[in-house]
Amino acid sequence: MTALDVSNNTALTNLECIGKELTSLDLSSNPEITELDCSQNQLTSLDVSANTALTHLYSHINPLTSLDVSANTALTTLQCNGNQLTTLDLSSNTALTHLDCNNCTLYTSDAADERPCLGLGGRRIIQKKNTKNIKYKPITRENDEHQRTAIT
Predict the structure, then answer these.
(1) Which has fewest Cβ within 10 Å: 22, 83, 117, 132?
(2) What is the pLDDT of residues 96-145, one digit of tens each?
(3) pLDDT at 129
(4) How far apart are CA 140 and CA 40, in angstroms?
(5) Per residue in 115-151, is it b (16+ CB within 10 Å) or e — as a string?
(6) Which pTM does this prediction carry?
(7) What values do phi and psi take at 45, rounded to 5?
(8) In whole angstroms, what separates CA 144 from the centre of its chain?
(9) Reduced to 3 states, what is the DSSP secondary structure of residue 68?
(10) Please, which residues have CB within 8 angstroms of residue 20's CB and are 6 or more apart in sequence?
(11) Pairing relation of β-strands 56-58 and 87-88?
(12) Cα 69 to Cα 56: distance, rounded to the nearest angstrom
């Protein structure tokens, strides 16, 4: 299966399509989705701009090169580890409490400063668009067994 058609399921709130070898996923007709797990597929792009009710997004282990979650202001959990992301703008995601982007090649991030749970997989945020003179240290297994840390 390389595509999944859920366009007639307009009241859909949860969708799990894990490990289905999907190369495309059109969710433009599903504005009520609150939880999406499309991990372990072959998605190179994912458009969730129409899914403004989305609170949990699991898109890990895909070859995603970009991910725009700016319209998903209700998002509380984002797992996008194991992708090919180089940037991730989270400046609109003020409700976000859990972020995991291990094994991504993030060079820039707008991760807000008050995230209680942030996993960057040992990556250092090199450039930050909204700076407040905050110094980030790399997350390592030595200082956090689960590669998560509280940013204060």
Answers:
(1) 132
(2) 999 998 877 665 444 544 444 444 444 444 333 444 443 444 444 444 43
(3) 43
(4) 25
(5) beebbbbebebeeeeeeeeeebeebeeeeeeebbbeb
(6) 0.72
(7) -145, 155
(8) 21
(9) strand
(10) 1, 4, 41
(11) unpaired
(12) 11
What are the start-end ranges of the H helices in the chain? none
Distance CA 107, CA 43 (A): 21
CA distances from 142 to 81, 139, 145 (A): 20, 8, 7
Q: Where are the beta strands (DSSP E) in the chain?
A: 3-4, 14-16, 24-25, 35-37, 56-58, 77-79, 87-88, 98-100, 108-109, 117-119
For the chain, the 3-state helix, strand and coil shares in percent, each to the nearest 5, are 0, 20, 80
Give the mean pLDDT of 36-45: 96
Measured at the CA of 47, the angle between CA 123 and CA 20, to 5 degrees, comes to 85
Find the range with the poorest average confidence among 38-47, 132-141, 143-152: 143-152
Residues 6+ positions from 148 with CB-CB distance below 8 Å: 100, 117, 118, 119, 139
